[in-house]
Amino acid sequence: MSRQRDQAVLKNKPDNTAFTQQRLPAWQPFLSAGYVLPTFFLLGLVFIAIGLGLYFTSNNVIEIELEYTGRSPNSSCHHCTKNDTKDCKCNIEFKVDKTLPGPVFMYYELVNFYQNHRKYGVSRDDDQLNGDLKYLKEPSEYCFPFRQDGQNRPIAPCGAIANSMFNDSFVLYKVNNSEISKVPLNSKGISWWTDYNVKFNNPKLDNGTDLKQAFEGTVKPHNWPRPAYELDTNPENNGFINEDFIVWMRTAALPTFRKLYRRIDDGLQPGKYLVEISYNYPVLSFNGQKRVTFSTISWMGGRNPFLGIAYLVCGSVSIVTGIIMLIVYIKYQGQNIRKVE
Amino acid sequence: MWAELRKWAEQAGEGWRERRAQQCVGEENWVDSRTVYIGHREPPPGTDAYIVQNYPDNRIVSSKYTFWNFIPKNLFEQFRRIANFYFLIIFLVQLIIDTPTSPVTSGLPLFFVITVTAIKQGYEDWLRHKADNAVNRCPVHVIQGGKVVQKQSRKLQVGDIVMTKENETFPCDMVFLSSSSDDGTCFVTTASLDGESSTKTYQAVQDTKALRTEAEVDTLNATIECEQPQPDLYNFVGRINIYHETEEPIARPLGSENVLLRGATLKNTQSIYGVAIYTGMETKMALNYQSKSQKRSAVEKSMNMFLIVYLCILISKALITTILKFTWQSDSVRDEPWFNMKTQAERQRNKFLSSFTDFLAFMVLFNYIIPVSMYVTVEMQKFLGSYFISWDEEMFDNEICEGPIVNTSDLNEELGQVEYVFTDKTGTLTENNMEFIECCIDGHVHVQHSISNGQSFYSNAAIDFIDAPVGIADQERKELFFRALCLCHTVQVKREDETDYQKQHQDGRSSVYISSSPDEIALVEGVKRLGFTFLQVKDNFMELENPEAEIERYELLQILNFDSVRRRMSVIIRSVTGEIILFCKGADLSIFPRVKAGKLDLVRQRVQQNAVEGLRTLCVAYKVLTSEEYDSVHALLQNAKLALQERDRKLAEAYDLIESDLDLLGATAVEDRLQDKAAETVEALQKAGMKVWVLTGDKMETAAATCYACKLFRRSTQLFELTTKRIEEQSLHDVLFDLNRTIIRQSGSLPRDTYSGFSQHDLHDYGLIIDGTTLSLIMKPAENGSSSNYKDLFLEICRNCSGVLCCRMAPLQKAQIVKLIKSSKEHPITLAIGDGANDVSMILEAHVGIGILGKEGRQAARNSDYCIPKFKHLKKLLLVHGHYYYIRIAQLVQYFFYKNVCFIFPQFLYQFFCGFSQQPLYDTAYLTLYNISFTSLPILLYSLMEQHVSIDTLRRNPSLYRDVAKNSLLSWKSFIYWTCLGVFDAVVFFFGAYFIFDNSTMTSNGQMFGNWTFGTLVFTVLVFTVTLKLALDTHNWTWVNHFVIWGSLLFYIIFSFLWGGIIWPFLNYQRMYYVFMQMLSTGPAWLGIILLITISLLPDVVKKVLCRQLWPTATQKLQTKRKYISAEQSTIFMLSQTSSSLSF
Chain A partners of B404 at a C-beta cutoff of 8 Å? Predict the structure, then answer.
């Protein structure tokens, strides 16, 4: 009988493991002032140090921003905003006081342009842009209403994003007294390496290498002056792998955005400069603005004091909180221990 | 004219009543009873018409689904749940209208949840199918044409004669026809049915027990009329009509002792024959497996409240954005800039309709704020978490070889919220292991050990007993008393082994008594030590051995069974001399009014004194019946037993008539010892802030003694009595008002800090004793409506008492009390604990019902939510497991809402920067996987393993339980705190990323990032913050926690690398290509992520530290104290050393 019982005990008895008995070895920390106070002070100091570094780095970045929308009649580009102008050009002059060491990056900036609008953002066909011949002829439904033209011919590249590609162009001149010399602008490497090399590809026919042939049967986007295969004479920068196009196709996060236009490898020496703008892109209809920007870049990107200030504030706050907590700690320490005892 | 009218009305009324009565009878016959033709034999003509009846076959179907209906039925079941239905609607909206996120984002999680649940349920059902098949295919022996035929169990029909051999399980419910043993009995264990492992004896029908072979049984021509299947295992009402060729048919009553139930096993008997009456799903076993009513925990209720709040938030968010979008669009320049033209169809769309679809689209975009995975996680947490209870080794009882059983995992957290504990006394607070202490015969007290010397003595000087020399008359009374104890019971004798039956029969010593009532065993064993040994019941003769070693035989004529209403039982026996005697045994109150002779006063005094000492008393009386009297008694009982309708009532009336005019013999006292650590447990529960009420059917004095013993009442406790005695002196009204005034006056002078946790030395400690009669007076609704007043007063009094004892309670009254407290205006959480059938009603009524695996069968255990082996285990169950489960689930719920606010609020803010175009901030994969994989496991594991303080601390400090009382972690205050924290974090994420992006480049090569990088930055900060927030809240870092928390962060990173690292085929967009890597290749992203995580976590840390310092809870004080004791003891010691040396 007793053996039977022992067996039953053995059979029914739960496993005596640390896990089943909820006694796994464990570290049992809790947020006490003892741990937290030093952490706060340390954190504060580290953050202030980082903040100072960031702040000065950001302040060393030089940025020159030129607005050329031409809304006001005094603006040099005002004449280009009239309706029936074609191939309008306007010039903007600016002065560089201090040397901008190379490379200097040249951006164009649009304001109040909702590239992040949902309907706009989906209006593209990544398969088509990847060079898939099938989608070249039959673009995705997402491109609607910029999928086919009136005669049901496929648009390449399809969609609203491609259709609205930024088409102002800039030429930069250095003005030495009356002499004007062109500053060389480098357009290579302005788009992500992976976009240029992997994500975007020109359609390729089996027999030929001619881009025009590959695009046969498609039409250009309605707003484009030229078809995609005539974007550039350089075959490495033509068609879907045109870097300006790739840059445009990366939709911006916010309604005011910059996009990289060119790089000036040698930097800008002090002096007078002149930007010649081919003014094509209409922005006044949606109360937009256009700017062109020159900026040097530090290891942490362009001029943006936010991070530095935020680090400084956060660091100071944590030190102040630390002090407050220290006071509370000292004041109430004795009481708690007395209470517990 | 009026008179005529009235007459007409009366006639009409009568007619209607009559008609109804007839109909009722007819209907009842048709609905409530069935006729079974034994062996499918037609009854002889002229009796009843043979009606072929269709009963289900003997197939047991415990499975819910079949192969064909699994998918539709399971889907239907699952979508009946409101949350699943909500997600289905969202999914359908996504399919129908043009929405910002693809249907995959809500479809996949929904599909995942549904599939996981379906797989779990399908697997369980498959197991059930397998078990069903095994049972349904197992062979049974059926008599057909005088021969034994083997059949599959499922082919058994009602009316088949079945043969069952030893150690086989009965295949269906059947009426016991005959047995291989001579006396027509068999032994059965119902262990698998109700858990009682004792062997019970069943009786074959008297007129058929002679049919011992297949051929004989096959000649039987009889019908059985019985009630339609009832789930009650312990009741059966039926009648057998046996037709002989020549004679009149014989009718015999059938009771539960004639019915062998499916699931029970035949023991110690070679074989039996029976006729199937209930088969398949109609067997009592199958009827008992029906699901019980659903209890919902307080946490679940607040969870649903929060859900509604979030639903409102969701709808208002969607409304706000829709309105803003509408105003935004009123400017056509913004609505349709040239670069983002609309199609013709879009332009022509009805304004109202498009606003509505916009609203739906925003709903879809923000729908993740109600987390689909929360329900799954909560369910998994409950299901898996409940294993920790059944695994608990400390709650395993070696004596009965059983540990705790979790019948429902829905209420785990409710164990941490209990405010009222209602406990049964017998078997719960006490061992229910009775020991015979003394008896009192006509006022002479016989203490057990002295009786063996043949002495009797005064037991108490306060009671004047006259110890006359033991005369012949007294000696006779004494022996009569012992014989009464020996005969008046329903104890069975269990023989250890069938083979040496003879030997044991001779010495009788190694036999074991078995009964459903431990009192009876104690009495029979006690009287055996006094020389009268009960041997056995054989062929309706009770055999006993008297001190002279002679065997006396008494014919057992009738047993008037015990029931809890009557609270007594009787037997009628005929001695060898032909004398017919009725012995009656029962509670004092149910015997004394029926006594007309005997030394009532002396016995009553003794009984009361024993009761004060906490002994259980029973009174014994007898009466001699003449044979004429017996005949009328027999007829009365027979009539009542044969009745098909209202048999119970008729029987009760008959018993009432028979058990009267008794001659009181004496009383017995049996001790029921307190359970191990019962007092400690009650004390701990009280310290934990729970009010303990003892509800018992016992007498006031006995119960009060037990209450003192288990420290429910202390010496300092001021007791108030609300008993019949007091009500007789004063009106109920006055008593109640008096008590209330006393309590309020005295407690008013005290500062009210009973909840502060450290003031256990209350000066005024009140206890209340109330009995059943008074309670029913209080509960009775009075005509003038003042009853509610009484109830309120009563509740007010109870609330101020630390312990309440309710004695003389009927089972239903126990439930009434629980209900009364449950529905009082604070709606406290109640817990009922009990072990017997009389506790079932309160176990079912209370928020949490706990059964004790006791000696009185398993009924309480089967109806309970949790079973524990002993009362002392309640302490760990509530104080440790309950506390843990509560904080775990509370954190789980709050955290789930928090992390989804963090998740969705940035998306809401983003709408202000994307022209309210419903642009999602995060990529589809992130939207989909956030809840089901990036942030799901850490919280699940947290909610399984969190221990904010150690098990031992919780057990040693019951007052910690008060920290979580009243659902404090899920109060609106903390809910709002969590939500605000979530909103704050979301604002930090979004605007942090916004300003980091602010129009300038983040890279060192001048390239720009797009909107998906922006979303990924926010998302990365989000995942890290939310996970680290949980890490901050984790107080118990086992390797599992480390693995899961760091593992899920690592998983997020690896997934993002993979997701962005490949041009995914079959996807029509490649927007995430290299986004994550490009982001991480820049310095500001890293610095920004670190900064934003820190800012998001800082306020919570500060709040925690300050709260801990300024307003520490008891738990936190203990944590601090423990730390001081363990770590800084040495420092303090050193400091005191230095200071003392300095003072010199």
Answer: none
Q: Which residues of B touch A282 (CB under 8 A)?
A: 338
A126: which chain B residues are within 8 Å (Cβ-Cβ)? 1068-1071
Q: What percentage of residues in chain A have a pLDDT greater than 90?
A: 48
Q: What is the 3-state secondary structure (H, E, C) of B45-99?
A: CCCCCCCCCCCCCCCCCCCCCCCCCHHHHHHHHHHCCHHHHHHHHHHHHHHHCCC
Distance CA B64, CA B82 (A): 21
Alpha carbon separation from B603 to B438, B468, B704, B1044 (Å, rounded)? 13, 16, 20, 71
Give me the amino acid identity at B642.
L
Which pLDDT belongs to residue B198?
Answer: 58
Which residues, listed in sequence order, are joined to residue B551 by a DSSP beta bridge?
B545
Q: What integer pLDDT is reported at residue A341 of this predicted model?
A: 41
**Alpha-helical segments (H) within B749-836:** 772-779, 787-799, 811-822
Catalytic residue among B424, B442, B923, B1100: B424
State the pLDDT confidence band at B450, using cuts at 50, 70 and 90: very low
pLDDT-above-70 percentage for chain B: 85
Backbone angles phi, psi at B287, to 5 degrees: -65, -25
Contact B337 A23 (CB under 8 A): no
Record the tokens describing residue B449, joined without a space: 């050990």
- Do B1109 and A328 lie within an 8 Å CB cutoff? yes
Q: Which two tokens stand for residue B775?
A: 């309670």
In this structure, the strands spanning B580-586 and B615-625 are: antiparallel
- Is ipTM strictly over 0.90? yes
Q: Which residues on neighbouring strands pair with residue B581, listed in sequence order? A: B573, B624
Q: Which residues contact B345 (CB under 8 A, 6 or more apart)?
A: none
**Where are the extended beta strands (E) located within A59-167?**
63-67, 88-96, 104-111
Q: What is the pLDDT of residues B633-643, one digit of tens each?
A: 888 888 887 77
Which chain B residue lies closest to A21 (C-alpha atoms)? B392
How many whole angstroms separate alpha carbon B804 and alpha carbon B775? 13
Q: Angle at the Cα of A163 (from A159 to A169), degrees rounded to 5? A: 150
Q: Count of CB contacts below 8 A, A vs B?
A: 287
The amino acid occupying position A196 is Y
Minimum mean pLDDT among A289-293, A310-314, B169-173: which range? B169-173
Residue in chain A lying closest to B910 (CA): A254
Q: Is there a contact between B396 and A13 if contact means CB atoms under 8 Å apart?
A: yes
Q: Residue B553 to residues A208, B68, B524, B570: CA-CA distances in angstroms?
A: 118, 64, 16, 18
Query: How does the average pLDDT of chain B come out, rounded?
Result: 80
Report whether B921 contacts B909 (CB < 8 A).
Answer: no
- Taking CB atoms and an 8 Å limit, are B1094 and A43 in contact across chains? yes
Read off the tokens for A321: 């909180």
B519: left (phi over 0), alpha (psi -120 to 50) or beta: alpha
Q: A145, B343: Cβ pair inside 8 Å?
A: yes
- b/e sequence B981-997, b meaning 16+ C-beta within 10 Å: bbbbbbebbbebbbbbb
Q: Examine the residue annotation and report whether B183 is marked as an active-site residue of this protein.
A: no
Averaged pLDDT for residues B913-931? 90
What average pLDDT is seen over chain A? 88
Helix, strand and coil percent figures for chain A, each rounded to 5: 40, 20, 45
**Least confident among B14-18, B317-321, B809-813:** B14-18
The CA angle B270-B276-B282, to the nearest 5 degrees, is: 125
pLDDT tens across B732-757, in order? 777 777 777 777 766 554 444 444 33
DSSP state of B571: E
> Smallest Cα–Cα separation from B415: which of B844, B959, B971, B847?
B847
Query: CA-CA distance, B306 to B901, in Å (whole number)?
Result: 13
Altogether, the residues listed in chain B come to a count of 1144
